[in-house]
């Protein structure tokens, strides 16, 4: 605050040393209005200028102090005719930054080009509208939760101009009729929420009179330190807009503790300097709207609209007191046909530039327009100066990337929310690129599957490894057949044992002998099948280590057969001789013991072969 006062004092001292007029141009009347109802100071100056000299005049100079120029966010000048409801204004006049010779060094100059030269004796009504950010300073700079916010505005009661002014007046509009103090000059009147200075007559060039207004204002001081707006154009019918906000309350900084309980009980008293919600004015046909931050979706939002607008009321996760920060993202879609048009063989996007939240001042605004892949011959038309650059963005199925137009603007206010145009050429055939990529991808995938299913991917049939594999497969097949024969033989052995049990129960010797005869015939047939398999294994080099196991199992099974036949013959002969049961058991006991041992050995060898 002290630094700002010093700069103002130095500026006024320099102006006091400078009084000569710039030309014969005279401002016969100045009517200024300063609006302090928001954090952006908006000044409207209605000038009636007259040419009292002989030479025609084609431009009017507008000076601003350096301390004002750095806060100047918006400047526009128009000519006007009539008064009240019949008042009409022209389109904005060309304005450029100039540096006229012989002028005070503490001023920044802008030149307004008139629609036509002003001849001798002619007059013109000129309306100059300006917007300044950071022109209101909190005083005190720190307050508690229960305090109200006080702001200080400093300026001049006189219109600073290089031209003489015949009559001028000033009106300062406040947000509410509560003022701590204000500068009182001659012809000063305070009524309601408005302070009026003047009229003042016959003022020389560069006249000034310092004024300061210390007033109450609890309006939101929402400042976006950075806002990145990404506008992605899809020729499939949608314009997707994504806005990333880094927001801070730039008002009087909050000191002391914060009580959520007191805030919820009396928010107008215990949180008057904070803001709990903001309203974004979106286009009327916005859809698929979301509001989220790093944590996730924020449900404290409301949406309503009509045929002319869509209003999105967003509430941060906590009330925003002075110095507090938050980050969030807003996204929504728009129908393409409402914003994309054709002209002179080109397509052009016509969409708004600035922030949709009216109360927010954006310190650094970045607008990225992502055009479809294949767009070329790109040009941009913006109604105010911006920094322009190019970038590339890759998305799904992109090959060379999508061209991105990057526009940067510092100190952006609601007045910058104007329409701008991005012109480019785009071939309709490019629309088929991504569908054809998908179709081609699936086609080649299915083609590869068909080729794979029908192709013979085996190793060459003449290679040693392939021949060795075939031989090993033959060895395994022979082993499986031998194992099956052995299991069949063991099954026949079980039938012989069953015939002996039937003999002990029925005493039918002839039936028992018939069962043995049948078993002998089946075992002989199995032996015939076994001989060629054994010959093959004996001749195969791959089965050299296995043949001994096979020989053992065959030999053990043959011995098992012989012991079973001996047992069977002994039992049937004993039954024919009508020997006693104990006598028969004693005679076959050693044979039965050997049979059990052989059966166990055969089972073990078969398990080994099965594992192989």
Features:
transmembrane helix; alpha+beta; Dolichyl-diphosphooligosaccharide--protein glycosyltransferase subunit 1; 8 helices; transmembrane; 612 residues; 31 strands
Summarize the structure.
The protein has 612 residues and is α+β, with helices and mostly antiparallel strands.
How would you characterize the overall build of this protein?
By secondary structure, the protein is α+β, with helices and mostly antiparallel strands. 30% of the residues lie in helices and 37% in strands. It contains eight helices and 31 strands. It has helices at residues 2-16, 66-69, 260-265, 433-454, 464-506, 509-539, 544-576, 581-611, and strands at 25-35, 41-51, 57-65, 72-81, 88-89, 95-98, 107-118, 123-132, 137-138, 142-143, 150-156, 164-173, 179-182, 188-191, 194-203, 210-216, 222-234, 238-249, 253-254, 278-282, 287-292, 301-305, 310-314, 325-335, 340-343, 346-352, 361-370, 376-381, 387-393, 402-412, 419-425. A hairpin with a 6-residue loop joins strand 4 and strand 5. Helix 5 (464-506) packs parallel to helix 7. The longest helix has 43 residues, at 464-506.
Q: Topology, please?
A:
Blueprint: H1 2-16, E1 25-35, E2 41-51, E3 57-65, H2 66-69, E4 72-81, E5 88-89, E6 95-98, E7 107-118, E8 123-132, E9 137-138, E10 142-143, E11 150-156, E12 164-173, E13 179-182, E14 188-191, E15 194-203, E16 210-216, E17 222-234, E18 238-249, E19 253-254, H3 260-265, E20 278-282, E21 287-292, E22 301-305, E23 310-314, E24 325-335, E25 340-343, E26 346-352, E27 361-370, E28 376-381, E29 387-393, E30 402-412, E31 419-425, H4 433-454, H5 464-506, H6 509-539, H7 544-576, H8 581-611
Parallel strand pairs: 1-12, 10-19, 17-27
Antiparallel strand pairs: 1-2, 2-8, 3-7, 4-5, 4-8, 6-7, 9-11, 11-16, 12-15, 13-16, 14-15, 17-18, 18-24, 20-23, 21-24, 22-23, 25-26, 26-31, 27-30, 28-31, 29-30
Helix pairs in contact: 5-6, 5-7, 6-7, 7-8
């Amino acid at each position: 605050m002290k630094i700002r006062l010093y700069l103002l004092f130095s500026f006024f001292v320099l102006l006091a040393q400078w009084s000569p007029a710039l030309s014969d141009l005279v401002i016969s009347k100045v009517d200024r209005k300063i609006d302090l109802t928001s954090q952006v100071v908006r000044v409207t100056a209605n000038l009636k200028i007259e040419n009292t000299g002989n030479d025609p005049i084609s431009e009017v100079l507008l000076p601003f102090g350096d301390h004002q120029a750095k806060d100047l966010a918006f400047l526009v000048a128009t000519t006007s005719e009539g008064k009240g409801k019949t008042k009409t204004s022209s389109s904005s006049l060309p304005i450029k930054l100039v540096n006229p010779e012989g002028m005070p060094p503490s001023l920044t100059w802008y030149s307004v080009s008139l629609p036509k030269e002003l001849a001798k004796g002619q007059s013109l009504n000129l309306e100059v509208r300006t917007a300044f950010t950071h022109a209101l300073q909190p005083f005190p700079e720190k307050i508690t939760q229960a305090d109200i916010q006080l702001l200080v505005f400093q300026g001049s009661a006189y219109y600073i101009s290089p031209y003489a002014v015949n009559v001028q007046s000033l009106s300062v509009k406040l947000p509410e009729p509560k003022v701590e103090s204000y500068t009182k000059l001659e012809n000063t009147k305070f009524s309601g929420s408005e302070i009026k200075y003047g009229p003042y007559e016959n003022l020389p060039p560069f006249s000034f009179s310092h004024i300061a207004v210390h007033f109450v204002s609890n309006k939101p001081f929402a400042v976006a330190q950075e806002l990145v707006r990404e506008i992605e154009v899809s020729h499939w019918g949608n314009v997707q807009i994504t806005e990333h906000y880094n927001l801070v309350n730039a008002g009087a900084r909050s000191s002391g503790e914060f009580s959520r309980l007191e805030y919820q009980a009396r928010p107008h008293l215990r949180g008057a300097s904070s803001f709990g919600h903001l309203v974004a004015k979106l286009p009327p046909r916005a859809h698929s709207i979301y509001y989220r931050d790093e944590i996730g979706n924020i449900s404290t939002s409301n949406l309503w609209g009509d045929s002319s607008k869509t209003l999105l009321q967003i509430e941060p996760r906590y009330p925003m007191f002075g110095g507090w920060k938050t980050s969030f993202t807003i996204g929504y879609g728009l129908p393409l046909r409402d914003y994309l048009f054709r002209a002179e063989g080109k397509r052009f996007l016509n969409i708004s530039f600035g922030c949709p939240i009216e109360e927010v001042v954006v310190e650094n605004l970045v607008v990225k327009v992502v055009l479809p892949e294949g767009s070329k011959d790109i040009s941009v038309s913006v109604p105010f100066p911006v920094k322009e650059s190019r970038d590339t963005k890759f998305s799904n199925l992109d090959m060379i990337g999508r061209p991105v137009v990057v526009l940067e603007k510092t100190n952006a206010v609601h007045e910058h929310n104007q329409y701008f145009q991005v012109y480019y050429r785009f071939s309709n055939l490019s629309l088929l690129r991504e569908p054809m990529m998908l179709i081609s991808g699936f086609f080649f995938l299915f083609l590869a599957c068909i080729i794979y299913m029908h192709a013979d991917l085996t190793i060459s049939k003449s290679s040693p490894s392939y021949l060795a594999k075939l031989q090993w497969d033959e060895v395994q097949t022979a082993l499986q057949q031998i194992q099956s024969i052995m299991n069949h033989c063991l099954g026949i052995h079980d039938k012989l044992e069953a015939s002996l049990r039937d003999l002990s129960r029925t005493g039918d010797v002839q039936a028992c002998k018939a069962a043995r005869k049948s078993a002998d015939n089946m075992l002989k047939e199995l032996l015939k099948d076994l001989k060629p398999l054994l010959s093959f294994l004996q001749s195969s080099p791959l089965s050299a280590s296995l043949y001994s196991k096979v020989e053992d199992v065959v030999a053990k099974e043959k011995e098992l057969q012989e012991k079973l036949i001996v047992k069977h013959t002994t039992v049937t002969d004993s039954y024919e001789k009508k020997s006693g049961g104990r006598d028969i058991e004693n005679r076959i006991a050693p044979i039965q013991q050997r049979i059990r041992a052989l059966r166990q050995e055969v089972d073990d060898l078969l398990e080994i072969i099965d594992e192989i």
